[in-house]
Amino acid sequence: MQVVSMTEARNSFKSIFDTVYHDNEEVIIHRKGRENVVMIPLDEYNALKETSYLLGNQKNAEHLFESIEQLRNGKIVTKKIVDLSE
């Protein structure tokens, strides 16, 4: 993870964008005397938002964790998509 000052970010905006996008690397922009911000690729942001949404509901989170545990223990059933409509 790279940390740059606000001045450096302003002067190297394109380069920082390219680093974030092409290298899939987060960049922290340090703002002296203010809250720092993080620049991340949109795909990563969307994944974080989806994870937050899925785990934000207690019942949903419990179901997901239970499903993961079943997968780890080999307690899964494989079905074809056509079989699901029956």
From TrEMBL:
Q: Which Gene3D superfamilies match?
A: 6.10.250.330, YefM-like domain (3.40.1620.10)
Read off the SUPFAM superfamilies from this record: YefM-like
Cited function: Antitoxin component of a type II toxin-antitoxin (TA) system.
Stated family: Belongs to the phD/YefM antitoxin family.
Q: What NCBIfam families does the record tag this protein with?
A: phd_fam (TIGR01552)
Name of the protein in question: Antitoxin
